Amino acid sequence: MKVDLIVTDIGQLVTCASPDGPKRGRAMTDAGIIDNGAVAINGGKFVAVGSSDEIARDHQSENIIDARGRVVCPGFVDPHTHIVFAGERLDEFELKIKGADYLEILSNGGGIISTVQKTREELADFLVADGNMRIEKMGACGTTTIEVKTGYGLDLESELKMLRVIFEMDKMRSHSCTLVPTVLAAHAVPPEFRGRTDDYVDLICEQILPQAKKYYDDFTHFPGCGIPIFADVFCEKNAFDLRQSRRVLETAKNLGYGIKAHVDEFTNLGGSRMAIEMGATSIDHLDAISDREIEMLANSETVGVITPTVNFNFGSPEFADARKMIDAGCAIALSTDFNPGSAPCPSQPMVMAIACRYQKLLPAEAMNAATINAAHAIGLGERFGSIEIGKEADLVFLDAADYREVCYEFGGTLVSKVVKGGREVYNKNDGNYPRRRESNV
Q1: Pick the residue with more confidence: 436 or 6?
Q2: Predicted TM-score (pTM) above 0.85
Q3: How many other CB atoms sit within 10 Å of the CB of residue 220?
């Protein structure tokens, strides 16, 4: 059979194969390795996965990539990011070093609100340019699929602007990633609604969510490509309480969104239980999740998304107990939570390195959590996250002889080449790095 591309002589082909859904328990320790492997790609999808001898016997191509005995794994999937924003939060970085905590900064008008002010003022074209720059950074670290949230607008016009920016970034395809949009208007209470959170929830449920869903439905690129849209809520002290969070998610679900929830990051308000019972695709952070809720998560289809970069960035010795969750049978994914305040990190390999050291994941568990399970956390586990016949041909070439090196080595990148949909989109030897530009604000 003649195909578009063959990748051969792969020392370790790390498939992360899981045809029956996200990996759990013992299956997390199996990275699905094929020694001296190869893949055949046609029409942007994997059509054969096996040994180099098998692929050479049954497939031919004018385009062959020789992996020269190195590691090839699935493109990383990042299921929780906030990469559309204006400005930086460098002053807050120094405040945190001096001892200020997240909720203290937020209550004094910093944190999310400071980014909201800058993002409201920024032109959409500049947000697109900056977002694409961040996507290129993530792509250079091996990420090929990214969930992207709104949530720095917090009014109808600005939230729709952010959604438009996400759509434009994906449509432009000037980068190497598939984008999945999430509406997070319930990220924080904007200053004009201080003391009137219920009124802001009215705005979210009666205007922002319906109009954002209509915009998504009318933007034929996303429904036509089978990319879902999600709605999210930050169920937390000084953000949205359990009753308000439930109303946001119920409204979103009735409108046809998939639902997600920021829960148990600092305090347990019962958000994990609520979101699991509502059939959330994922619940994210989970630092303060209870044992009972871990049991519920293990017995559900919901994926738990862990964001160790936040704790690392805060200098905290306490991390979500991902080890306990995996041992209990939960489907766990990893994410950068890339954002300007709590997690300015574009690198899934760095997330994997932190998770292994501080949350006691084995390298195979971290690999599965950053690929196949992360894909299920954004409702796309049937298309992305593993090297299996029929899936999108997204590959990362690692300058390593053993896949465990991606967790073992940190502070740099082992990613040498990235293939997206069967097309090479990044080669570190090209030396093409995004340029920083001056902001409009």
Answers
A1: 6
A2: yes
A3: 9
Across the beta sheet with 282-285, what order do the strands follow? 76-78, 143-149, 178-186, 230-235, 258-263, 282-285, 303-306, 332-334
Q: Give the tokens for residue 35.
A: 């020694």
CB 201 within 8 A of CB 247: yes
- Closest listed residue to residue 304, CA positions, set 248, 355, 246, 239: 355
* Superfamily for domain range 76-376: Metal-dependent hydrolases (3.20.20.140)
Q: Is the pLDDT of residue 432 over 90?
A: no
What digits encode the pLDDT tens for the residues 364-416?
999 999 999 999 999 999 999 999 999 999 999 999 999 999 999 999 999 99
> What is d(CA 198, CA 189) in angstroms, rounded to the nearest whole number?
10
Q: Identity (one letter) of the amino acid at 354?
A: I
d(CA 276, CA 189): 24
Residue range(s) of every CATH 2.30.40.10 domain in the chain: 5-74+386-430
pLDDT in tens, 240-277: 999 999 999 999 999 999 999 999 999 999 999 999 99
Phi, psi dihedral angles at 6 (to 5 degrees):
-125, 135
Q: What is d(CA 195, CA 200) in angstroms, rounded to the nearest whole number? A: 10
Task: For the chain, give every residue range classified as CATH 3.20.20.140.
Answer: 76-376
In the block, tokens 């970069």 appear at 309
**8 A C-beta contact, residue 354 and residue 322:** no
CB atoms within 10 A of CB 371: 34
Length of the chain: 441
Q: Is residue 379 a contact partner of residue 228, using CB atoms and an 8 Å limit? A: yes
In the prediction, which pLDDT does 174 show?
56
294 contacts 318 by C-beta, under 8 angstroms: no
User: Which superfamily does CATH assign the domain made up of 5-74+386-430 to?
Assistant: Urease, subunit C, domain 1 (2.30.40.10)
For residue 381 the two structure tokens come to 């586990």
At 419, give phi and psi (nearest 5°). Answer: -115, 130
